[in-house]
Write a structure and sequence with these properties.
Protein Transport Mog1p, Chain A, seven-stranded antiparallel beta sheet, alpha+beta, 9 helices, disordered N terminus, about 400 residues, 2 domains
């Protein structure tokens, strides 16, 4: 199963419990003590947090998810210079320690594992690269990035996230100001014991700078060289800038190889729409006009399944179609039951890069994951759909991958 498909099914919002009074106390204390006072948007942010709270306290891993994927980006976008001040002194660990202690949870991770590195580009963009403790599960972070240009006001938050399907690689993502999560690029898991670790860190920072459209080469600096907009004092590690290596080129990171075994599959032909593909012969399937071929990976007539449909026309801009047509359709159809909606300009699937929308919605007490892909690389657009219950999608994702990889138009 391809890594991007696996990552895409992780819900953007963490549906996990926290004790109601304590998280408000955490964030308010941090804003006042570390970020220099509250903001007008604090109450809005806190009300959103409170809506997600339940009766039981979060585990350290759940708090860490909220810390890396919600709290840090929200406050960085609200107070970028103040947040960079905090990263420089006293450091991100001070925030983490406050969050866990206020929630009655041991901090779990040692302070020395939170390490900040600083870079500056030719256009004066500052990048704070913060090493996080080794993540244990998707989508916790190896590193988080705070990108800020004091001249233009550009602010961006990026993450290098753990991938539990490919041990040798990670995934570079971003959260924007409206708290939309995007998958941007492949990365590499860095070996802290490698002699090239410092250069590898800079290579990843260069990749993030490219994704943020930062102009010019990126140079590693110590905290004493941070521009005045980020007030700091002595370097965290005592490193002299003379010992810092020259910037290196962006790493040449190959796409992961397609790895679904299609041996033993059988052909399914759809003469009505003029295509064929392959699937497990144990699966039931049927054809319906206007729907296409549906392959049921468990019981015929019900979720989970994969649908393959070839339209009569070509959708010239499938990603725009997803953004402007299909996602609004899902929002209208499922309303408040729609838990998350993610749009991908390129999703790795079946050896191709295809625009896709990934949606999760509740049917009674069951969380359904739906993936819709539009492949317009041929003369006609092919739409692929996969539906399965959260946490039970492996066979269906494999069937989707096989359908895409073996699809042939007549």
């Amino acid at each position: 199963m391809k890594r991007f498909l696996a990552m895409a099914i992780v819900p953007v919002l963490l549906a996990a419990p926290v004790s109601a009074g304590t998280m408000e106390k955490d964030i308010t204390a941090e804003v006042e003590a570390a970020l220099g006072g509250g903001t007008q948007d604090d109450e809005d942010i806190l009300s959103e947090v409170e809506e997600a709270l339940a009766d039981e306290p979060w585990t350290p891993q759940q708090i860490r998810y909220h810390f890396e994927h919600s709290m840090l980006p929200r406050y960085f976008y609200e107070l970028p210079e103040n947040m960079l001040d905090v990263i420089a002194d006293p450091g991100i660990y001070a925030l983490w320690d406050s969050v866990t202690n206020e929630n009655g949870v041991d901090p779990t991770y040692p302070e020395e594992e939170y390490i900040a590195h600083w870079y500056i580009a030719e256009d004066d963009t500052v990048i704070a690269q913060v090493e996080m403790p080794e993540p244990e599960e998707t989508p916790l972070c190896y590193r988080v990035y705070f990108v800020y240009n004091p001249e233009t006001g550009f602010t961006g938050y990026y993450t290098a996230e753990y991938d539990n399907f490919f041990e040798e690689s990670n995934i570079i993502c971003s959260w924007d100001e409206d708290m939309n999560h995007s998958v941007l690029a492949d990365g590499e898991v860095l070996d802290k014991n490698s002699s090239s670790y410092k250069e590898d860190l800079q290579a990843e920072a260069e990749l993030v700078a490219e994704l943020a459209e930062v102009s010019g080469e990126l140079a590693c600096i110590d905290e004493s060289e941070i521009p005045d907009t980020v007030d700091s004092s002595e370097p965290a590690d005592g490193t002299d800038t003379a010992d810092i290596p020259e910037p290196v080129d962006d790493p040449d990171i190959p796409d992961p190889e397609y790895d679904v075994d299609i041996s033993g599959l059988t052909e399914i032909a759809c003469p009505e729409l003029g295509f064929s593909f392959m699937a497990d012969p144990a699966y039931d399937w049927d054809y319906e006009e206007g729907t296409g071929i549906t392959v049921y990976t468990e019981n015929k007539g019900s979720i989970p399944y994969v649908i393959v449909y070839q339209d009569e026309d070509l959708i010239a801009e499938p990603f725009e179609y997803i953004q402007e047509q299909f996602t609004p359709y899902m929002q209208e159809k499922y309303g408040d039951a729609l838990e998350a909606a993610d749009e991908y300009e390129e999703l790795d699937a079946g050896g191709k890069k295809i625009p896709a929308g990934v949606y999760s919605y509740y049917v009674q007490d069951k969380l359904v994951i739906m993936i819709r892909l539009y492949d317009s690389t041929g003369d006609r657009t092919v739409a692929y759909t996969a539906k399965f219950l959260d946490g039970e999608g492996d066979a269906t994702l494999d069937a989707l991958e096989a359908a895409i990889h073996t699809f042939e138009a007549e």
